[in-house]
Amino acid sequence: ALDFCAPLIDDHAVIFFDDWGWSEDRGEMGEKEAFDRFLEANGPFETRELPSYFEKARVFMVSRT
Questions:
Q1: How far apart (Å, rounded) are the C-alpha atoms in residues 63 and 44?
Q2: CA-CA distance, 31 to 24, in Å (whole number)?
Protein backbone atom coordinates (compact mmCIF):
# COMPACT_ATOMS: atom_id res chain seq x y z
CA ALA A 1 0.00 0.00 0.00
CA LEU A 2 2.82 2.43 0.82
CA ASP A 3 4.61 1.81 -2.49
CA PHE A 4 1.32 2.41 -4.32
CA CYS A 5 0.92 5.76 -2.54
CA ALA A 6 4.47 7.05 -3.10
CA PRO A 7 3.93 8.59 -6.56
CA LEU A 8 0.65 10.13 -5.38
CA ILE A 9 2.36 12.24 -2.69
CA ASP A 10 3.01 15.66 -4.23
CA ASP A 11 3.88 18.00 -1.37
CA HIS A 12 2.34 16.50 1.78
CA ALA A 13 0.34 13.52 2.95
CA VAL A 14 -0.90 12.23 6.28
CA ILE A 15 -0.36 8.51 6.82
CA PHE A 16 -2.16 6.57 9.56
CA PHE A 17 -0.93 3.27 11.02
CA ASP A 18 -3.40 1.44 13.24
CA ASP A 19 -1.26 -1.37 14.67
CA TRP A 20 2.22 0.10 15.04
CA GLY A 21 4.48 -2.41 16.77
CA TRP A 22 1.91 -5.15 17.36
CA SER A 23 3.79 -7.81 15.42
CA GLU A 24 7.18 -7.18 17.06
CA ASP A 25 6.52 -9.75 19.79
CA ARG A 26 5.91 -12.40 17.10
CA GLY A 27 9.14 -11.58 15.24
CA GLU A 28 7.26 -10.41 12.12
CA MET A 29 7.87 -7.30 10.06
CA GLY A 30 5.41 -4.72 11.19
CA GLU A 31 4.27 -1.31 10.10
CA LYS A 32 7.31 0.46 11.57
CA GLU A 33 9.71 -1.65 9.53
CA ALA A 34 7.56 -1.31 6.40
CA PHE A 35 7.46 2.47 6.84
CA ASP A 36 11.25 2.64 7.29
CA ARG A 37 11.74 0.62 4.08
CA PHE A 38 9.23 2.80 2.25
CA LEU A 39 11.08 5.97 3.25
CA GLU A 40 14.43 4.53 2.18
CA ALA A 41 13.12 3.35 -1.20
CA ASN A 42 10.88 6.29 -2.12
CA GLY A 43 12.44 9.38 -0.57
CA PRO A 44 13.46 11.98 -0.08
CA PHE A 45 10.72 12.56 2.46
CA GLU A 46 10.62 14.48 5.70
CA THR A 47 8.37 12.98 8.37
CA ARG A 48 6.80 14.53 11.44
CA GLU A 49 4.86 12.45 13.95
CA LEU A 50 1.44 13.90 14.76
CA PRO A 51 -0.81 13.22 17.76
CA SER A 52 -2.35 9.78 17.63
CA TYR A 53 -5.83 8.52 18.38
CA PHE A 54 -4.82 5.20 20.00
CA GLU A 55 -1.87 3.88 22.03
CA LYS A 56 -0.72 1.46 19.30
CA ALA A 57 -1.46 3.82 16.40
CA ARG A 58 0.86 6.35 14.78
CA VAL A 59 0.12 9.29 12.50
CA PHE A 60 2.76 10.98 10.33
CA MET A 61 2.87 14.04 8.13
CA VAL A 62 5.04 13.08 5.16
CA SER A 63 6.49 15.89 3.03
CA ARG A 64 8.60 15.74 -0.10
CA THR A 65 11.91 17.51 0.35
A1: 9
A2: 10
- Residues 6 or more apart whose CB falls under 8 angstroms from that of 30 comprise 19, 20, 21, 22, 23, 24
The pTM of this model reads 0.83
Can you tell me the distance from the alpha carbon of 11 to that of 46, in angstroms, rounded to the nearest whole number?
10
Residues 2 and 13: their CA atoms lie apart, in Å, by: 12
Predicted confidence pLDDT, tens digits, the chain (65 residues)? 898 998 999 899 999 999 887 766 676 668 988 999 999 999 799 999 999 998 889 999 999 98
